Amino acid sequence: MSLNLSNIRSLCMLRLSAIGDVCHAVAMVQAIQRQYPDLPITWVIGKVEYQLLKHLPGIEFVIFDKTKGWRSYSELRKALKGRHFDVLLHMQVALRATIASLMISAKVRIGFDKARAKEGQFLVTNCQIAPQHQPHVLDGFMGFAQKLGVTDLTPRWHIPVPLADTEFARSHISDKSKSVIICPAASKAERNWLPERYAAIADYVATKGFRVLLCGGPAAHEQQLATEIMAASQTEITNLVGQTSLTQMLALLKQASLVIAPDTGPAHMAVTQGTPVIGLYAHSNPGRTGPYLYRDYVASVYDDVINQQHPSGNIPWGTRAKGGDLMAQISLQQVETCIEQIVEQYQLN
Q1: Which of 125, 141, 218, 226 is in the most buried spot, having the most CB atoms within 10 Å?
Q2: Are 5-147 and 163-345 in the same CATH fold?
Q3: Which of 50, 44, 37, 30 lies closest to 72, judged by CA?
Q4: What is the mean pLDDT of residues 202-231?
Q5: What is the CATH number of domain 5-147?
């Protein structure tokens, strides 16, 4: 279907999850807003992700609560009853999103190109973005803005937080202090680095004059990992795991000098705040999901592992490596080298 940009009067985005991905999507939607400042935009988003982005200017949010099972679809249909959009940006390749898209009425339904439109997405779209060769997730999203005629695709972020959350962050990290935030836990335990190595890195940065804080969500496994790091470290660490809202965490990440994290939401949240990130990668390809602005500072064994598991080299872009102990292959020296590079590059001495 051809796309007549002059006739677009309403736009709906569908990107439900996860935290890192919606951070990438913010850069895309704000690129659209810069070129089309008067275009009404509705974003269908997950309940948790909404808590991070609910203060975005110029966006109407419609919450999709996946915890309600099949009821979530009927509630989405009810919330959008009588609404019709000129364009839908279907930005999530997942069966849940494919079904959710059926609740959204739109004339032009833009999805990924044929090679990436999986989980039935190609069945519910009638227009595709241009194919891309081995893109980062954020660049993949920018393909949707490009399809709408956006010419400035440089990623920029403006995610407002309440003043109280900024003051909360400053109460823990003053504007002039040197601090490292470690966000140690990914959504799956196999993507976590070893607690004793996190502890060793905490000790290492402490010798360079940095305060160390731990951040993360309230899940039991995240709190357990934080406890193990604290027990193994010789450094005084401020443990804020499970003690912040998402916007409070965002404010903390902005105040930090440096963030260290595996492939998890807070790593990408830190990118939106312009805080240097050291990503720890073994299972996922940092070229596809690494901290976008700081991919030069990734401590990764992904290439070695994926070459061992697929010696032919003939694998799709973004193929995940498999194994429960892959993160143990990331050495302390790799992370220390990244720290030294960032300290020098960003003059954090």
Answers
A1: 141
A2: yes
A3: 44
A4: 97
A5: 3.40.50.2000
